[in-house]
Give the backbone structure.
Amino acid sequence: MLGVSLDQYGFLVQGAFWTVVLSLMGFVGGTIVGLPVALARISRGWFLCRLSSVYVQFVQGIPLPVIMFVVYFGVSIYGFDVNALVAAAIAMTLYSSAYLGEIWKGCIQAVPKTQWEAGECLALTNLQRFIYVILPQALRIAVPPTVGFLVQIVKNTSYSVVIGFFDLTYSAKILNNATFKPFVIFTAAALIYFAICFPLSRYARRFELRLHRRNA
Amino acid sequence: MDYVFDFSFLESFRSEIINGVRLTVMLTVVSILPGFALGTACAVGRLYGPRWLQTAVTIYVEAIRNTPLIIQVFWLFFGLTVLGARIGPFNAAVIALVINTGAYSAEIMRAGFQAIPKGQLEAANCLAMTRRQIFWNIQLPQAAELVYPALVSQFILMMLATSIMSQISVEELTGVGYQVQSITFRGFDVYLVIAVLYLALATMLRLCLHGAAQLAFTRLRKLRTPL
């Protein structure tokens, strides 16, 4: 098809599979690290608050490719033989945890203050108040921006090409070098990315509209 | 762990690193204004344009926002080469950044235009201002001021995104880092320095954009209040 064989399209799909794998790893890792970051961001302790804010600002001020390089070269000086997937997954975890932490901090703060006060009136402990009153409400607010950020994660896995991780972008690059049909190959790659990201964007928007309607 | 840092490359590769910083700054500065202008035009087209223009802008915005920048860059750079147009990597990078930033700022500016209180437009109509006067004197300044924080974040993300341009042989800061590490084999040390430089650049860009806001938005300067 269009001067590119079916096998070669299969090669793109293979790359797409690893893009999805890396995205999932980035999201899961980002959740595990991002949740404590969000909690630290709203904590009343000066040190935790400061520390997490510095962390977020650092990660958000450094381009993802550079984070990838730092992790890639950084892990190897500990004497581990790094595989590009591990380095890319760690970098994606760092990256998404900072953004998710910031997003979720906003969601927790978006729960009206009266809810905290009401919880206090019911003599709930701090932990109970957070788990039974605030968290369920914050979760609902958090769905649209989190799904929206998934799009960013999927797109940004493409930066792992700098450390030679075999993902969709990398496979497209190799195919282009082999066939030199850039329009066909990069359009196909773009379509695959679009097919992954667009439904997520739509979901995010629909969730958001539903949330607004419920609050209105 | 007995890792010894060695930052001697800072001395021997100083001019390369400075050139890298300069190129990163150039890419950013050259792309911001056209990107913002394109985005504003698209926002206006999507809100007030004829039906076909609205559809076209929507397709453009969704296509750009749902595909990675690096694929867009490759598509443009290698694609144009096949077509026989040799525009050079730097130009290709700038075009890609402008197109990319245009799509994102279109969405931001659209939100801005929609957030302007109706009373402002009614008041402008009462003063018998023309459509054009209303746009330039009422809508554009207010929309830009309303969404300015979002725009600043977007421009900083764009600056960080220039780091991918070394993939098409624009030797900006990240590309220089790669060269230096392939000569010195001090990958970790080199990229730590690069990371610090990007942090400094991001902070500086933020300060500059906030300064620009003080100059551009007279109301903000006089009243010292957010809109």
